[in-house]
Design brief:
Elements (H helix, E strand, L loop, with lengths): L2 E14 L2 E10 L2 E6 L4 E8 L9 E6 L12 H10 L2 E6 L10 H11 L6 E4 L5 H10 L8 E2 L1
Parallel strand pairs: 1-4, 5-6, 6-7
Antiparallel strand pairs: 1-2, 2-3, 7-8
């Protein structure tokens, strides 16, 4: 009996050791488990990728969603949906919002705005200003803090 996995991506081309090769990708628990000619596997779901190039998700480390402040241009919800459609699975949002994400209060607001509204993995940069540098030196000593949500 064939081993069953969550998703089998069949007959796509992958760059392996600097060569394009037609292979199958076995995915279970949201991770690639095996790559190769996997005739012994059956997927609960299967995707035919013939004539397609299979690539990993892209991480965009500099996005500008402008929320809060200029949501008529873009916001966290629509920007993250567009990211997913373009193959981007993770984004790092810049602090050029209005008000800027350069205080702990605004940073926490930004996290709240993103909760249950973004379609991809995300993280937020914390804006560096003269005031935030003094705050970080005084209040946080040498701690580095990084927030991300999935």
């Amino acid at each position: 009996m064939a081993q069953r996995i969550d998703l089998l991506n069949k007959n796509g081309s992958c760059c392996i050791e600097n060569n394009l090769k037609k292979v199958e990708l076995a995915i279970s628990d949201s991770k690639i488990q095996e790559i190769g000619h996997l005739k012994n596997l059956k997927g609960i779901n299967e995707i035919g990728a013939k004539e397609l190039l299979v690539l990993p998700g892209v991480i965009d480390t500099k996005v500008h969603y402008r929320e809060p402040g200029s949501t008529e241009a873009d916001d966290l919800n629509s920007g993250s949906r567009a990211a997913i459609l373009g193959g981007v699975t993770s984004v790092f949002e810049m602090p050029n919002t209005n008000p800027q994400t350069s205080s702990e209060k605004e940073f926490l607001k930004q996290l709240d705005l993103a909760t249950n509204r973004m379609f991809c993995n995300y993280a937020f940069y914390f804006g560096a200003t003269t005031q935030t540098m003094e705050y970080l030196k005084k209040e946080k000593k040498n701690e580095i803090f990084f927030f991300q949500k999935y």
